[in-house]
What does this fold into?
Amino acid sequence: MHHIISIGDFDRNGIDRLLDHAGQIDRKKYDSNALGGKILAVLFFEPSTRTRLSFESAIARLGGTSLSVGSVEACSMAKGETLADTVRVVSGYADAIVIRHPKEGAARLAAEFSTVPVINAGDGAGQHPSQTLLDLYTIRQSMPIDNIDIALIGDLRYGRTAHSLASALSLYNARLHTISPKGLELPATLSEQLTEKGMEIIEHDSISDIIREVDVLYVTRIQRERFPDSASYFNVASSYRITPELLADAKKHLIVLHPLPRVDEIDPRVDSLPHARYFEQSRNGVPVRMAMLMQVMQ
It folds into this structure.
């Protein structure tokens, strides 16, 4: 039984094989009944649009079906049932489970009690491996991943998408540039782990300082709830906004990614620029998650 809990569950060859498979799927080279008769349980205890719908689309496109629990209030956890017991029960109804939970480590706990494969769709400030795989897939559509310069921008302390992506990029000799508000820097433990793997991490105060150097801008939402008041939030958030004027000095091939949803981190005028790849990035969630489901369910 193969779980996907962390991007660390893959080595570089494993990532490349899965992305190659996603590319074949993207070119419509797949069996539309590859998972016929299979059932995917979708346990999402946090809000989601893209991740949830793309997993449900993925299983449907492969001929399978899905069962869904939309919130804690909608299941027996509202009555006091533990996550472990919920997973024990649900794994008897399905062939795989995809879970999103607000507590870090919840997906790994679920894997311990499940009798079917578990895919982590985000656990607190922990990991989000399926997002990272589609991020890498999107980068690879524009350029080789090896030796790129990538800037992670926004909330890097609590942003699980940034954590997973940084870990994966350490396998590709990428140089990591970080720009974040004070107190929301990349966790020290993660920085140490990446440095031990040989990754170069460079902190910056301003996006404009590096806009001419980087190949990828990976923008994340700065969470308003991390600030004492709205004025403090808007003062910080405005300093981390991507605009056409900022991108005027960028490399021609630079791409802008965002795991979405965005609030005001990216000016809507950027949407029409050739640098913008975030909606394509979202669409890529379907073939990548199709490849993931085939890997754990076939």
Remarks:
- The longest helix spans residues 12-26.
